[in-house]
Every structure is written in structure tokens, then in C-alpha cells.
Amino acid sequence: MIKTDPRTKVLLMFITVLFSIFVPTGTMTCLWIGLVTLFGILMGRVKKTIRAASVFAALWVFALYVLPMLHGTVHTSLLVWLGLVFKCYPCCMLAGVIIGTTQISEFMAAMAKWNVPRSIVMPLAIMFRYFPTLKEDWGHIRDAMALRGISLSPLCFVRNPGVVIDALYLPILVTASKTADELSASAIARGIENPNRRTSRLDIRIRFIDVLVLIIFCATMAAGMAARMGGYAWI
Amino acid sequence: MNNHKKGLSAKDLIVTGIFAVLLLMAAMIGGGPFAAVPTLTFYFPIGAALLAGPIFMLFIAKVPKFGALAIVGAVMCILGTLTGMHWGMNFGFLICSIIASVVAGMGKFKKPVLNLAAYLVYCIGPMGTYFVFFFNRESWISFMLKKGTEQEYIDKMNETASAGIMLIMVVGTLIVATLSGLLGLRLMRKQFVKAGIAS
Amino acid sequence: MDLEIRNVSYVYPESENGALKNIDLKVKHGEFILLAGLSGCGKTTVTRILNGLIPGFYGGKIEGEVLLSGHDINEYKSYELASLIGSVFQNPRTQFFNVDTDSEITFGLENAGVPCGEINAVLERTTDELDLCNLRGRDIFKLSGGEKQKIAFASVYASDPEVYLMDEPSANLDTAGIDELRKVLEKIKEKGKTVIVAEHRLYYLAELVDRVVYFKDGKIEKEMDGGTFRSMDTDSLNGMGLRTNRYIGNAALDHHFEDAGKDEVSICLKDLSVDLGARRVLRSLNLEFKKGRICCVTGKNGVGKSTLLRTLCGLVKKSEGRILLDGKDASPRELKKRVFMVMQDVNYQLFADSVLNECVLGTKKRNIEHAEKVLEEMGLAGFKDRHPNTLSGGQKQRLAIAVSLMMDKDILLFDEPTSGLDHGNMLICAGVLKKLAAKGKTVIVVTHDEEFIECCRGDIVNLKSN
Fold this sequence. Notes:
By secondary structure, chain A is mainly alpha-helical. Helix content of chain A is 77%, strand content 0%.
């Protein structure tokens, strides 16, 4: 098991994004997925990483061996869809690993070390915090709608579009506004407006393992680029 | 102790964070079903534009300042990058949010027509991915059809990501965004102002 | 640190509620002050002036002087005040900034730029002194309301302010949560800190207060010392619109109300079990609810009171057992038709653009006359053109009840209807419930408010954990 700095993870993400921009889908994609899988397992996220890798393998086998047997529209649409999926898969999978192994406070502290401006860090922090609240609110709103005999089914919508729209937007936006007000009041009363540099209870620094992981990812990326420039058709 | 400065106050930033979540969820719920179905993938931006109108309108009424929308774009861009969204969409979001902010700002965030136009611009953001894909499709298709004939290749190119589909995507998104934006303006008048959550 | 408010008047920019007129108040270092009074009397406004949220956050113009240790409060920036005056707010759901408990406790210190090592030392000390070791490193969203409020308190405690300000900290807590709150208040009082609490529920503060300041219509009507307050009886407090200063407790409530054997059973649970995910929340429950009666369901946090209500509404499917409606097995669909719930946060349930439209919305026949009659009955006739969101908490609740009456529902459920209500509104609420019962409705109330249970004089069911 290893532990890496959140900044390393962000850099890995950028390298992977560059990879998906510049390296076309092909054998290199498989290699990259392998790398991400290894990283995920080492970070201690074993089960989910292996599952994601298996899904990728299944899709890849399907694209190589089953897809050519199909014809017509099915073939076309699957072709396009798989094209998009394979483009996004390395990023999404790495994102899963990163999100699953990083605490928000850790992330915020790392962002602060990078001197990311407060106007970006604060909304980001609020977003992470608000997602679960929205989920709870949504559950309550669904209940409230059901009690009034309103559902989100198309039938109900056609019968009474105005009511469904009101029942959907008003409670969400009213509670969101209330949450925003109360949260701001509480944050201001605890000194969020302090212009001094924010500190963190977590000690975050780049260690040897971070450098090592970065070197491995960069080297793979460089190899992929070089192979492409060299014109090896099999890549 | 006075927060009524020009820049964004702590409260503005918190409101921005919360509304960024709402805008993001609206895009996911509206567009998600499209993204998951192969034949409909290209219509994701249409779905994404469907629900967010009222949220967008309330947001610019609550934080009528230049930077707010730009921050939404920046935050979405960072979050999108960290969650492995396609970079075309992320930067599309960022750029379109900044432009939308300028458009709405021209009317001091109070002119309904400009706010509507800003929403249209904002909705173009998610199309970034598809533009990138459209101009980049050769490499993937050539990888898939190495063994195929030349003719087959040309057919596929015309079938997938044809200019027609792109046109439907752009026009469809603009129409849906207009409807959603108009709904937003209506709800502003009919509900939000009276409810005291926007002035 | 001494606080002094000199001849302060204030009006909110958009509302007349909570305005202050010529307030004079001196608080000496180490005093424990209770601000009491009806909703909208201005007691919350005082706390907001002291922590600087007025005028910085809420706007408006403030007249008069507020002095902290002899210095004008305007000389302090919001973050400077934050280290001197710690605030705990009413709603435990909306006052935290982080998703894990440790980061939340250290939030104030991080804002102030305290070095890393020191922050961790303070974190250890705080959790030690407040007995929070079992809450370390937890997901705040998975905590109960009481635990959340403890974390909010710890977050303030970690910054070690001289003054603690609290605005209805007990509003969303159950009896056990309130007891925990009382213990931490005792602790800071012992440390010699100044405490100012604005509150409706008074019993848990009775032993702690040094002085009670009673507000009425934005003015200080009366000040009394702790001894006088403790010696007051419930009737004279009620006469001032205040709640009791004594703990009622479940034991006192355990008297038998007149037997009502002849009442018809409207809803009956037989061996009912409900699972949420993999967890069995309710196990083999046998209960009967009767027509024309109020039934109060009590029980600790997490025994499944909310799940019981949601099952009765048909929002959750039962796993085993039977739910009988007038003697017949009822599906969730049938339950949904007959049962209505007034939620703890009624904001979720109101979405029309006026009070009158709220009533006629979704009903089969848009019967305006009937709606007006129902509103009259709920004491909302004068508000029919207002937007529901601009009503007070108690009024919103009555509007939700009006909606249920419009929909002809005959079984009405209430989830913590008195959280955040003052004594007067609590009485009105109890009156409305009695009225509903007299009409032959079945009324089921989940509550932890013993004072309210006593007012309702209904049957009591105590849910125990399985």
C-alpha cells in the first residue's frame, strides 16, 4: 500500500488527460489502463479497481472480436459509442481511484499549497459538501411530491406540467437558497473571510513515492508518443 | 465590517458553489440518459440544456457579478477534469461560461433578453467533446477498420458524426435552451421574486 | 470580555420581523444570559449584532453603539470577531462546511492560519475535553442531529472564544441531544466563559442561567436573575408566552388517558418489519391507531420513527407483516391516497405561488370557496394572497395541514411539528391537532417535545430499538 500527495494525483490526472488527447486509442490505451489498475490496487482500492479493469477488458474484447461481425446501424452506433467510451475510460477510471482515496480536506490543503485562489477553492469545497445535502433534500422533495400525488412520470407531467415544474424547482431552489444563507452566516462567523493564508491540520508534502509514480506515468506517455512519431502501425 | 465591495464576498462564493452543484446535477439528469445510449450520445447537450434554465436565471439574480459565472465554469472545468470528463467538454464549459458572463453582464444581469442569450451560450459548453470528436474521428475509425475496404471506410465516415447530426445537435440544443431559459424567466417573475429568494 | 449594547435600534432591510427598538444591555464577563421571547421578538437579532452578521451579512442600518471591552464593534473585522465570539446556530444540517468531523472542528483554526502542529494539538484537546473521541474522523452526514450540533459546538470551542453565542441550539434536537448540549454548556460556564443563548425551550437552561432577558416586540420588557427565573411557575411563564423551565420527562407523561375502547381502529400494524437497504429498521411492530385520536410516537434517535411514518404514507415498502386500513390489507398505493404527512421541514411541501393556489393545486375540483373555508379554519384567511415561502414556520405548517384537508386525507402524520416553535405557536399547533381529531381524523405525531405531548393529551407510544 502506498500513499501519495493529492498534488501528485492531480498531476497524474493531467498526464492522463494529455494522453487521451494526443495518443490515439489503441494498444497504448490498454497499457495505460493496466498502469492505472496497478496504481489503484497499490493505493488500496482493490476491488473496485479490478472491477473497472474487467469492464474495460470486456468492452475491448467486444470491440475487437464481436463488433466486426455486426453490420448496419447497430455497428455504426456502437462504433461511435465505443470510440467515446475508450477515449474517456482511462480518465474516468483514474478519477475513480483518486476520488476514492482522497479526503476533501486533504485536497483543499493541497490546493492551498499551490496557491489556487480562494475564489476557486471555496466554491469547490462547498460543492463537495453540498452534494450529499442535495441528495437528502431530493429524497424529501420526492416524498413531498408523492404525498401530493405528483410524480415525475411523463403521464403526470403531460396532465399537469405547471404543477410538476413548480413542485420540482421551487422546493429545491428555496432550500438551496436557505442552505446558502445559513452556511454563509456560519462560515463568516467562524472567520472564513480572514485574508491570511489558510493552513491545514494535515501535513502534506511530496515524497519519494510521488516522484516515482510521476516518472513511471510520464515515461509511459513518452514511450507512447515516441512510438506514434516513429510510425509503428501496431500502436 | 462591510461586505458590499465590488468583488465576490464569501457569501457569493458559497452561493456559487451551491448553484454549481445544482447546474451540474441538472445537466447530468437531463443529459445522462442520452450519454448512456449509443445512438443518442450526440444529443447529450440537448438533454443537458433541458433542466438548468430556472437554476441559471436564479443564480445570476442572486450573484449579479461578473466573476460568478466564470467561477462556475472554472469549477466545472476542474471538477470535470478530476472526474475524467472529456477535456473538450471541460474547456467548452469554461470558455462558454466566461462568454455567458460577459453577455449577461452587458445588461448588468438584469435584462431578460441578455440573460436568455447568456443561457444559450452557456449551453453550448458541453458540445466541446463532440466538436473534438467530429474533427478527430479519422484516427479511431481507421483503427477499427484497418482490415476493411476503402469504400467501407468512406461510408462509415459519412454515417457517423455526419454534419447533419452535428447540425441537429447545435440547433436542438439552442431550441431546448431557449425554452428552458424562458421557463426560468417565467419562474423568476411568478415565483422566486415573490418567494423572497431573489430580488 | 464585557459586552455592552447602548441604545441600539435596527430594522432588517426586507422584513419588519425581529426589529429592535432602543435596546440597552450590559453583559459582564462570565455571565450566562438567556434571551427569551416569542418568535420575531428580536432575540435572534441581538445575537446577530453581537457576532457582526448584522450589518455585515444581513445589511440594514444599525443605530446606537455596541461595545466589546469598551471598543466599538465596527472596529473589528468579521474574522477578528470570529476568534473572540463563537456562534452556534439553529440548524445542524446547514452550519458545517466540511464533510468529515475532524476538518470541521479545526475549520476556525485553519481559517485563522494557525500552524499545522498546533491545530492537531487543539483538535486532540478539544475532542478529549468534550468527550468526542467516538466522533473523530466520521462522515458528518451520517451523524444524528444531536451529534452534528456537538460537532458545531466543538468547532467553536476549538477556537477558544471568550463569548459563546447560541441561536436556538436545541431546535432540532431530541431529549438525549438536549441533555448532551446542557452538559457542554455546563462545561464552558465552569471555564468562566460568557454565554448568551436565544432559546424557546428553557428547561435545560434553567439551572445554568445567571440572568434572563425577556424581549417583546423588539424591546427588553423584563430582566430577571437566575433565581427568580427558576422560582417562576409554569403558568406565569406561559402567561409571558414562554415555555416551561422544568423538565417534564416521559415518566410524568406516563399517566393513562381516558380509555377510548369504543373508538374505531383506522390503521393497524401487525408484525410489521421494514428494511432500509440491508438494515432492518423496524422489527415486528404491532400498533393500532384510532380514529378521532391523537397518538404521539416517541423514542430515541435512530429507532425508526421517520421510517415508520414513511411506511404509513406508503413511501417505503414493508418487508414483512401487514398494514390494515379499516381492517383491510392496504398497498402503498392505497396508503398514499388516504394518508398525508406534514414534514419536519415543511418547505419541501409548499410550491405554489400563493397560499390560496397552494390549497387548490392538485385537488380534483378547484373549489375556491372550500379552500377559503379551510384557510379560515387554519387561521390563514388573511394570508391567502401571500407567497407561502414568506409565511412564518407555524403558518407554513398550518398551510400544509390545510392542503391535507383539501385533499380529503383522513390519516394525518406529523414529523416533529414543534421544532423551532415558540410557546404560543406550540399551543396553536396542539389546538389544530385536537380540532383535526375532533373531526374524526386519525392524527399520528412523532415528537420528542414532552411539553407538546402534554398539551395534546393523546395516546403515547414509545418506540424502542430492536
